[in-house]
Amino acid sequence: MTAISAADIDTAVRALRPRLGERLITPDSVDGFEEARRVWNAAVTHQPALIARCRDTAEVSAAVRAARDAGLPLSVRAGGHDWAGRALRNGGLVIDLTGMRAATADPAARTVTVQGGATTADLLAATTPHGLVTATGVVSGVGMAGLTTAGGYGPLVGRFGLALDNLLGADVVLADGSTVTAGPDGDPELWWALRGGGANFGVVTELRFQLHALPTVLAGMLLFPFADAGTVLAGYAEIVAAAPDELTVMTGFLPGPAGPMVFLCPFWSGTDVAAGERAIAALRSLGHPIVDQVGAMPYVAALSMFDANIVDGNHYLLRSRWLPDLSSTAADALVAGAAGISSPFSTLIVNRFHGAAARVDAGATAFANRVPHQVVEVIAVWPPTDSVDRHRAWADSVAAALDPVSLPGGYPNLLGPDDDARARASFAGNLDRLLTAKRRYDPDNVFSAIPALVD
Predict the structure, then answer these.
(1) Which of 56, 50, 42 is closest to 70 using CA atoms?
(2) What pLDDT is attached to residue 309?
């Protein structure tokens, strides 16, 4: 793209100011540009030229057209939870959907409709009173649009699939500013591409999800001393390999007062409570838990367990690997990584992919990796006063130790800006179809949330 000039920015301002008024935020806006451009990861310092806080689809369409006409780079901020800050483009125009967070449940039809800026918490606030849920991520502050369009791993993956497997349709503003409805009965090719291809095809302004009856889950946290790490991880690997759909378990290492602790976080979503309690007992017996907080609770309460680990204002850096299973080699690498962890805030998280999500045909959606696997997140966290160097070195060393037993590719939502080759590999046999869709819906590469799909 050619250099951005003050005249280009002024062109966009003249197009949008009459429509948005003070909701078009510039670096000299009295309402505070710095606050508007801030995301939870304080390591992200991108400086957009304009932030358009949209309230409806028509305003989103106008913002897309204004950016194109002015030649400005374009990005979309929904939940804003991407660790690499791809919601903000240097010198570009940000379409900010944080004012579009409405969620409306239809309990009779078992569906929920959410706007493009809605978070998991917004969705569950509408569905929980009816005892209904859909597949979500692990943290309640994550935006549903970004989560869903790239995949959507979470605690219900075994029983209800990925978030994208529950997507019934979506309204999308395309690169030319037009609006389409993607779904099985309306532009099925775009619907296919949206389910795994990320936000590379347009701005998703509304999503409709299938809901499932789930008044409570049996969930919680088991924390074990670091000395138990080897036996806990080995036992975890054996249990999850044979786990039913109703049991999804996360593991890894969380900060503790005396250093990292190994954790097991089970989610039992089945109706047979006795079977769930037996499954939890088997996990409990793997070591000597020093924290044992597992019980029946609403799904929304269970998600709050990890919210405290996301502290606005800290710096974050993430590395990720796909593993076919948690082999002894992988477990040893995680234990060694935890032993040398870069800060008291850093974590290692392992998510399980299995069950219903693994029974979907690899070509049915753009998300291609449908075999059971593990997703490892190496999350380096440090205060702003610290240097990034040792935290990056730690994250890179753990990821490198996992490389010999890793699968090709990786989950695009967790990959970094330099991971294009791995992102492309993640789409496997679906890549050519995705690139064809990209040329059809966005031939000028207006949207680039996943740079690997910029053809």
Answers:
(1) 50
(2) 66
